[in-house]
Amino acid sequence: MVTVINHPLITHKLTTLRKEETSTKDFNQVLDEVAGLMAYEITRDLPLTEVEINTPMETMTTSVISKDIVLAPILRAGLGMVDGIRGLIPTAKVGHVGMYRDEETLNPVEYFLKVPDLSDAIVMVLDPMLATGGSAVMAIDVLKREGAKHIKLVCIVGVQEGIDAVLEKHPDVDIYLAAKDPVLNEQGYIAPGLGDAGDRIFGTK
Fold first, then answer.
1. For range 100-120, the mean pLDDT
2. Per-residue pLDDT, 22
3. Domain containing 102 — which CATH number?
4. What is the DSSP letter of 81?
5. What is the pLDDT of residue 52?
6. 96-101/190-191 β-pairing
7. To 10 degrees, what angle do helices 8-18 and 24-42 make?
8. pTM to 2 decimal places
9. Which contiguous run of DSSP H or E holds residue 165?
10. What's the structural domain count of the chain?
11. Over 80: is that where the pLDDT of 107 sits?
């Protein structure tokens, strides 16, 4: 399943992210806000279990989330989405999947992995950009190797090439986007896109 979350607040904030003149500080703040807004849709189908509690008035039966939530940002740009989602799910655990894109081949290279127990968790792979799909596919490969069975891929902007690449290798993974852009340019970047999200998050360019 591919879901493009159309909401006026997300569209408005995405405009700020796209602007070339947006500062590092504002980019980070708005990225947090967009990720947080997306979290409502991403978590719509989380499993619940019934519990009995005491209110100040009486005992009642209600529900709580029944599985662990693990956020798995693809380093380094995925880190920019963690706080926005964790603000709504403060109990979420955070794993880290380190990958970089070889600028000549455009292929992803794995260099770091540290994750909690994934076997019965809902795992959200975070990466602002879904471009060629190579990093997302490799990250999902790695997380499945580590025992993940329930995976959602959460990106801010994506293109059809990346969507197709992920669904071809991992048809069981749901994909969530704030926007779907038309093309990849010759350098493998999304256009119009946001630019290099990692550089914009950390002010390295």
1. 84
2. 95
3. 3.40.50.2020
4. G
5. 97
6. unpaired
7. 150
8. 0.92
9. helix 160-169
10. 1
11. no
